[in-house]
Amino acid sequence: MPLIKHEVVESGAEIALWKITETVDELVILLQKGGIYADLPFFRNQNRLAEWLATRVLISHLGVQQRVVYDEMGKPHLEGAGKFLSISHSGDMIVVIMHASLRVGIDIEKVGDRIFKVQHKFVNDSENQWINEQTRMEQLYVIWGAKECAFKIFGLGAIDFRDHLTVAPFSFGNKGITEVRFKKGENDCIFRVFFQYLDQVMITYAIAS
User: Higher-confidence residue: 44 or 124?
Assistant: First the structure.
């Protein structure tokens, strides 16, 4: 079973990481053992179907028997359950975070130089002042992930990643902590973001207090 990581982290949040190695047919068998997904969606892209199946296999592996449903803002929820949930995918990797009572956000990205082409869309001037050129690529992924986590937690629609979100200075290592500030209108709050670099993959997550 390609469960790469499963741990309880800060504030009692639960994180699990899965690498898709199964075929679609194998994932269907694994998912239907849980008995809550009798009808499967149609995807023209088999990779997208495998991603959908593996996500739900992973969640069921964590002992959750509720369906994943999405609200009008596209945020995932567990049907009929009070737990908060966030999901992220990158290639054949899937990561989820759950918490019984606190909002959560998570992001996973395969690290590569493609991020340099889009950094102007999410990095603001204050962040550019402290980024270390020796670790710029890795720090860009942490900044992106931190802002993506904030977006997932708040789910307030139109958020400008440059203007409404600012990440505090941090030094890059394989594991670390930073902060992200969300400021838009009457909303103004700061919370911690945790990051981990694992096998060319950057995982970032945040838990709203």
Answer: 124
d(CA 83, CA 79): 9
Mean per-residue pLDDT of the chain: 91
Higher pLDDT, 31 or 152: 152
| Closest of 170, 168, 173 to residue 190, by C-alpha | 168
Residue 1 has pLDDT above 60, yes or no: no
C-beta of residue 152 within 8 angstroms of C-beta of residue 86:
yes
Q: In the chain, list all ranges with CATH 3.90.470.20.
A: 3-101
pTM value? 0.92
CB 78 within 8 A of CB 56: no
What integer pLDDT is reported at residue 35 of this predicted model? 64
Provide the 10 A C-beta neighbour count for residue 49. 17
Strand 3-8 relative to strand 84-90, pairing: unpaired
What radius of gyration, in Å, describes the C-alpha atoms of the chain? 17
H helix or E strand, kind and range, residue 112: none
Domain 3-101 CATH class label: alpha beta
